[in-house]
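Our consortium's second objective concerns turning raw sequence data into structural hypotheses that experimental partners can test. To show how far this objective has progressed, the report includes one record in full. It was chosen at random from the queue rather than selected for favorable results. The single chain below, 50 residues long, was entered without modification.
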Amino acid sequence: MKIHVPANFIGYGTFSLAAMVAFAYLLKVYANAPGIKALLPTAALGVLLF
């Protein structure tokens, strides 16, 4: 049981970091997209992650 808290801390931290990196990648990919329609899925994901 002593390993439970540090393992959860590492697991949740890794998941949060992965989500931030993936969102930054999506922003980079769609930054030069022509029009607002291409940015809508990324904006929706940003709202969900926030």
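The partners drew two points from this record. The chain has one domain: 4-49. The chain has a mean pLDDT of 84. Both points have been shared with the crystallography group to help prioritize constructs.
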